[in-house]
Amino acid sequence: MPEGNGSESAENMPHLPGLLAPIVDGVAESVIVRDLSGRILLWNKASEALYGHSREAVLGRNLHELLPAHRPASTADLERHLLEQGHWEGELKRTTASGGDKQVDIRWTVVRDPSGQPVSIIEYGRDVTRLSDIEVESRMQAHRYRNLFQAMAAAFWELDFSEVRRMLAQLAQGGVTDFRAYFEAHPEFIDAAIAATRVVDVNEKTVMLFGAGSREKLVGGTITHFWPPESRHVYAESLLASVHRLPSLSQETRLSTLDGRTIHALFTVCWPPGHHGRGTVLVGVIDISDRVAAEQEVRASELRYRNLFQAMSTALFQLDTTRQRALIADLMARGITDIAAHVDNDPDFLVTYMDAMTIGDVNEAAVRIMGARDRSELIGLPVTRFWPKPSYPVIRRALVSGLRQNVTFEEETVHYRLDGREIHTQFIVNASPELRARNMALVGLTDITERVAAQKALRQLQSEFAHASRLSMLGELTASIAHEVNQPLAAISANGAAGARWLSRPVPDLDEVRSIHTNMVSDAKRAADIIARIRAMASNKTSERQSLSPNQVIEEAVKFLRHELMAHEVDLSLEFADGLPDIEADRVQLQQIIVNLALNAMQEMKRAHCPQPRLRMVTLLAEGELRFEIKDSGPGIPPAIQERLFQSFFTTKANGLGMGLSICRNIIEAHGGRIWAENLPSGGACFIFTLPFAR
Ligand code: ADP
User: Cα separations (Å) of 673 from 202, 311, 449, 551, 690?
Assistant: First the structure.
């Protein structure tokens, strides 16, 4: 075979026939080698017979001139295609030495030097001028097969297995019967078999998939390069399949490409009927790297999910919802579409529904929260076990939320532990579409028993404090109350004495007595009113909402303050907006706030020795709400404490409780309003609250 470039091959030319003639002369096909310019370098015996030209006469001549094809214009095209693809095959009609035409079936293959440069072209030719019908048919079959072979999306290999068959036969002759055991004990045999398997043909897909660049890189070589050692056992399996004469074998395996990648492949080798014992096998290779990568990703993400599931400090329950969904589907099929109504009409359904939901998996935190020994004690249990009857409405709401396809549901509730003890829980359901698709739901539980207890204690404490603060306020108000009550009582007693005198006159003046009596009744009523107000304030009764006129409530509160205002010589002005709608509020609580704010203001004005203490109470309608402002002429609020005013226990007074403003805020917020404080441009403080009007 020529080496190097075209001019060197010309020099080498005379030696070629001598070297190769014994080999190529034995071949029945015509074999012609030409250089890239078309000069004939080799011409075997079969060529002499086919074309009628002797070897001596043709060497060095141009092939295309010697054997003009009937479509000479296309010869250049064919050559170009040949150099691009490295291969061409087809039929040409050629004129022979005797002047007759021959139809020749031709295959051209480019030979390259080690650097990949084309140096010569080998031509195999077969006379197909006179083919029998059977041959024509079988050639068409072969043609169809080739087209199919090339067009397949799979990578196809036609492999020459004959050498391997001989190796297997030798083993059998040597007494080997258990081939599987032999292959396991002798991996080197498999390597040798791989090295002895030769590539007869491949399709374009194979060239692409295995990064070969061209068919020629593969054809004629062995498959060693493509079989990494870790896939040896798959090759061994295909040998066994061949030994046992299976029609085909499919296995997943890893194969190597020429450019150094590893691909995951579905490898199918098939021996069509009657092919066993023949030299070649057909191998299909489908690249499943993407699928394998996707599967690995799924496995990895499942692993991450599992790890996360176990590591979470929240108790997690993975529920199997298969039966529960069947239950709902069954209802739907029976025409019951309003499941919520169905649950309400048939309370037993909820139990059936819970029975149908079983625990598929749990994490360690779930084992702890339920007081189980280990996971197995919980897995498989229906959830009914964990739901006390009073918590059923929660499961009903969770069911309805699930039917609305909501992804999450969250509520505080009470659950049973395994030992029947009750725990307060934060119950969270997650039923994402991904989970639903797998008939699963995730439930997270947090034990909030302690939090609930703490909240309860706090509420208790707060109401105690509110009560205490009211009492301390009443303590401060005692003087004014005494005065308030004292005044009508003194008037009653004075009027009583006067009445007695009018009666003891020689002619009693009954008109005078009647008028004195009327005064006494109204004084007694005033005293009774005051005492009733104090009672209401002092009693620790719960909030009672009613429709109230805001201005009227404030006027009543001011009555409590009359004495304090007088004692501190405070100038109070009321600036009420007319026609305000009613508010829905607790009268006593609201008055408590106003008294509290006013007392605070008076105390601050006194502390700052304010020469002209003034208080203004304002009501107005702002942004659809009631707005109440109380403004003083005191020192105002130092910016440093502004933030903390409303915090519990914050006080700047030596014997203050620091609860007044915090209670005011609680009450206002419970009524749906807001409260805050500002400083006035004139220097005093202004406390403001808003309340929504009654609907
Ligand atoms: P206490 O009256 O027991 O201190 P409060 O919660 O009622 O508790 O008040 C907290 C603090 O807010 C008071 O100590 C005082 O420093 C400040 N404060 C309240 N009202 C006014 C006001 N009108 N002017 C300036 N500071 C005030």
Answer: 83, 43, 30, 17, 5
Q: What is the distance between the alpha carbons of residues 470 and 540, in angstroms, rounded to a whole number?
A: 9
**What CATH architecture applies to the domain 312-447?**
2-Layer Sandwich (3.30)
Q: How far apart are CA 330 and CA 322, in angstroms?
A: 12
Q: In order along the chain (695 residues), what is the average pLDDT of each group of 10 residues?
A: 38 44 70 89 88 91 85 72 81 86 85 82 83 61 57 75 89 90 93 92 86 87 90 90 78 89 84 60 81 75 73 83 89 87 88 93 91 94 94 92 88 94 91 83 87 76 65 62 70 87 88 89 80 68 81 88 83 95 89 89 93 96 95 95 87 80 86 95 95 90
d(CA 309, CA 307): 5
Give the separation between CA 651 and CA 646, rounded to whole angstroms: 10
**Cα distance between residue 368 and residue 386, in whole Å:** 14
* Interval between CA 600 and ligand 1 midpoint (Å): 6
* Local structure of 596: helix, strand or coil: helix
658 lines ligand 1 (CB under 6 A): yes
What is the residue whose two structure tokens read 């589907």?
A: 329
Architecture of domain 3-130: 2-Layer Sandwich (3.30)
* Alpha carbon distance 130, 120 (integer Å): 30
Radius of gyration of the chain from its Cα atoms, rounded to whole angstroms:
53
Could you tell me the sign of the dihedral formed by the alpha carbons of 363, 368, 374, 380, in that order?
A: negative
Statement: the pTM of the whole predicted model exceeds 0.90: no
> Tell me, what DSSP letter sits at residue 694?
P
What angle, 0 to 180 degrees and rounded to 10, lies between the N-to-C axes of helices 449-504 and 510-538? 170
**Ligand 1: centre distance to CA 604 (Å):** 8
Domain boundaries, the chain: 3-130, 150-293, 312-447, 460-692
Q: In terms of Cα–Cα distance, which of 437, 401, 416 is closest to 321? A: 437
Q: Report pLDDT for 524.
A: 86
Cβ of 645 below 6 Å from ligand 1 = yes
Residue pair 336/327 in contact by the 8 Å Cβ criterion: no
Distance 541 CA to ligand 1 centre (A): 26
Using CA positions, which residue lies closest to atom 4 of ligand 1?
651
Alpha-carbon gap, residue 132 to 71, rounded angstroms: 25
Structural class in CATH, domain 460-692: alpha beta
Q: What is the pLDDT of residue 170?
A: 93
How many helices and strands, by DSSP H and E, does the chain display? 25, 22
Beta carbon of 652 within 6 Å of any ligand 1 atom: yes
- How far, in Å, is the centroid of ligand 1 from the Cα of 589? 18
Tally of CB atoms within 10 A around 86:
21
Q: What are phi and psi of 685, to 5 degrees?
A: -100, 155
CA 693, CA 547: separation in Å to the nearest integer? 9
Per the document, the length of the chain is 695
Same fold? 3-130, 460-692: no
- How buried is 67 (Cβ within 10 angstroms: 0-12 exposed, 13-18 middle, 19+ buried)? buried
Strand, coil or helix: 646: coil
Q: Which residues pair with 270 in a beta bridge?
A: 248, 282
CATH class in words for 150-293: alpha beta
